[in-house]
Write a structure and sequence with these properties.
about 350 residues, mainly beta, Pectate Lyase C-like, 11-stranded parallel sheet, 8-stranded parallel sheet, about 30% strand, globular
């Protein structure tokens, strides 16, 4: 029955997408030649620009390379915490999941609902951009896992531009520029940043853009959740940033070229005026109940309600691109599946019941 479910699920997804050739990695059912591959690199190498690769539950990036424009779709994450979103609660495998974007030909690629990175100390960065002039990459509803010391969920060693992180989750050290690499027109929209405690680790860097002038971007409707006892930094020195409708605690920002508007902090992270609120209580802002991401829903009477630019809510569930629980992909998924148990069919058919939704 597990294989039957995966077969039906994959068929619905494949038939619903309008991209070019669709390939699958880690499919449980009978393999289809030219469609199914045992790992991402094989699927990538067989693809042409514009193709789609579906990362099935349990699959992963295994020190792979992206050098062409593709659409890559995973199943989401935290699925066992947010029940009723996927009938199969297994996400991608986060064990040593690494990917290098090695060529400008990968510009225009889209990642959706993928899990990247491992969180193991000194194991490596999740996504590394090493190619020259990489631009227009979108990460939508992805989970990036960095470690607590030196490895990041996303790191770039050459100049990048027009990179979008939308409705994503970042754990521990999140995004960093190496050396003299500069990121321009970067967007962080409705993203959650959180860290885990580790002994003798003092600073975490959710965003680490140092060294040179020239970095620029928009940080909007994000939540920066630093654990008490560790100091979390956003190092935005040498750049020009718009910082709007965000909520943070246990948090420090470095940088002078930042335009703050309508942010909420538990201390004096933000300057007074321009709609910024200081010295708010974390427990009065969020419900703090439920899943890793669901706990950041605004509680009744939260000071973040209507406190954003134009009267929208601050935080990840506000604005025009509100966060979706578990990073559920915006393609049809099966969220309920039942079949007879212990019944021997009298004919060569088995009745099943399933429910689907679009997740746009």
């Amino acid at each position: 029955m597990k294989k039957l479910f995966i077969l039906i699920s994959a068929t619905l997804l494949v038939n619903s997408l309008s991209f070019a050739t669709i390939r699958r990695v880690g499919f449980f059912g009978p393999a289809v030649n030219g469609v199914d591959y045992t790992n991402f690199q094989l699927a990538h190498d067989a693809s042409t620009a514009g193709d789609t690769i579906m990362m099935m539950p349990g699959s992963r990036f295994a020190s792979n390379t992206l050098s062409k424009r593709l659409v890559i779709i995973g199943p989401g994450y935290f699925l066992s915490q947010n029940t009723g979103l996927q009938a199969n609660p297994l996400g991608m495998d986060s064990a040593d999941s690494y990917l290098t974007i090695s060529d400008a030909a990968a510009s225009g690629s889209i990642f959706m609902s993928c899990t990247i990175g491992s969180g193991r100390l000194n194991a490596g960065n999740g996504v590394v951009v090493s190619g020259l002039n990489v631009t227009n990459i979108s990460f939508i509803r992805c989970w990036f896992i960095g470690d607590e010391l030196s490895d990041y969920g996303f790191r770039f060693s050459n100049n990048i531009s027009n990179i979008i992180f939308q409705q994503c989750v970042f754990k521990n050290n999140a995004v960093s520029a190496d050396g003299y690499a500069i990121g321009t027109n970067l967007s962080f929209l409705n993203c959650l940043f959180y860290n885990t405690p580790r002994e003798n680790v003092y600073y975490y860097y959710f965003l680490n853009f140092t060294q040179d002038v020239g970095h620029s971007g928009l940080i909007q409707n994000c939540v920066f959740s630093g654990i008490v006892g560790s100091l979390v930094r956003l190092d935005l020195r040498g750049g020009s940033w718009a910082f709007n409708n965000n909520i943070s605690n246990n948090f420090e920002i470095l940088g002078t070229g930042i335009n703050y508007q309508n942010n909420i902090g538990t201390g004096d992270q933000y300057p007074p005026g321009n709609g910024n609120l200081q010295n708010q209580t974390w427990a009065n802002i969020f419900t703090l109940n439920g899943s890793q991401d669901g706990q950041y829903a605004l509680t009744a009477g939260s000071p973040a309600i209507g406190a954003g630019i134009g009267g929208i809510n601050c935080g990840i569930f506000g604005g025009t691109t509100p966060y979706r629980l578990s990073g559920i992909p915006s393609v049809p998924t099966i969220y309920s599946f039942t079949s007879p148990q212990g019944v021997t069919p009298t004919v060569n058919t088995v009745q099943i019941n399933l429910s689907t939704r679009s997740n746009n």
